[in-house]
């Protein structure tokens, strides 16, 4: 049940805890078990904040959809903390209608694809939508933080953009680096938005893994009746998960991550781990995958 806090603010939080799983266990999984372990299928629920706490780098993936009221970012029993960002940082990207985030009294207007970084020590966070008819959909990533950095909004127009791929290999795409260390200061959390051009369907090729970081892919702008096949697993023991719009796949450090859609789409990548080197990855040519 939602608990009234202020005139328009409610707290209604869903929480799920997922323990780390190794590559040997994944070899024994069927489709349903694989999806239960790694797919985040219902992050965007009306008037709810939804969280999955993974045990890969203590990374958290979530969503907030304020429709009829503002939503508060409340702490969780699992965090054993006075407030959510007591020892954490968070990245927020809006993939819905216009909205706003209020952080310790400072209001940040959030348009489509805008990113907001909130640092350790931010106590009071509220999510809101400008219109209940077209509510904001806030996609959330959070990781432990050892230091406080300033709260910073990064409009997608201010992103560092990498133009990658080619139509001949069906992976022509723009990588919008909105929350990396060359754009905004963070402890370990990094996020960005990759948009595939019309006619391209592969989001990351060559596929890669980085044993020093985990990563989560959140797929959006997937047209109705279309889907993305996300590939994961060890390079020589790959598995796949079919993904719909506004669903995410959790990638352990030992897993590759790559996807192919039935039409072009966009996705948000978020990662945390040992370093902030964006290019710290181990690549595998298509001919090496099994």
Give an overview of the whole structure:
4% of the residues lie in helices and 44% in strands. The protein has helices at 23-26, 31-38; strands at residues 3-4, 9-11, 13-18, 39-40, 49-54, 60-64, 70-72, 88-94, 99-103, 106-110, 115-118, 125-129, 138-144, 152-154, 160-164, 173-179, 190-196, 207-209, 213-220, 228-234, 237-243, 247-251, 258-261, 266-273, 282-284. A 7-stranded mixed β-sheet has the order 3-5-6-13-8-11-14, with no helix packed on it. Strands 4-22-19-24-17-16-15 form a 7-stranded antiparallel β-sheet. The radius of gyration is 18 Å and the shape is globular. It contains 2 helices and 25 strands. Residues 1-7 have low confidence and may be disordered. The chain has 290 residues and is mainly beta. The chain has 2 domains: 3-22 and 41-156, pectin degrading enzyme 5-keto 4- deoxyuronate isomerase, domain 1 (Jelly Rolls), CATH 2.60.120; 159-288, Sandwich (Jelly Rolls). InterPro entries: KduI, KduI/IolB_isomerase, KduI_N, RmlC-like_jellyroll, RmlC_Cupin_sf. Its cofactor is Zn(2+). It catalyses: 5-dehydro-4-deoxy-D-glucuronate = 3-deoxy-D-glycero-2,5-hexodiulosonate. Its EC number is 5.3.1.17. This is 4-deoxy-L-threo-5-hexosulose-uronate ketol-isomerase.
Task: Produce a short descriptive summary.
It is built from two helices and 25 strands.
Q: Give the tally of β-strands.
A: 25
In the sheet with the most strands, the strands line up as 3-5-6-13-8-11-14
Low-pLDDT windows of residues: 1-7
> Helix-strand pattern, N to C?
EEEHHEEEEEEEEEEEEEEEEEEEEEE
Biggest sheet layout: 7 strands, mixed
Class of secondary structure makeup: mainly beta
The fraction of residues assigned to DSSP E strands is 35-45%
What is the residue-averaged pLDDT?
94
What is the terminal-to-terminal distance?
47 Å
CATH structural fold name of the largest domain: Jelly Rolls
In CATH, the homologous superfamily of the largest domain goes by the name: pectin degrading enzyme 5-keto 4- deoxyuronate isomerase, domain 1
CATH-derived architecture of the largest domain: Sandwich
Count of discrete structural domains: 2
Function: Catalyzes the isomerization of 5-dehydro-4-deoxy-D-glucuronate to 3-deoxy-D-glycero-2,5-hexodiulosonate.
Protein name: 4-deoxy-L-threo-5-hexosulose-uronate ketol-isomerase
InterPro entries: KduI, KduI/IolB_isomerase, KduI_N, RmlC-like_jellyroll, RmlC_Cupin_sf
Cofactor: Zn(2+)
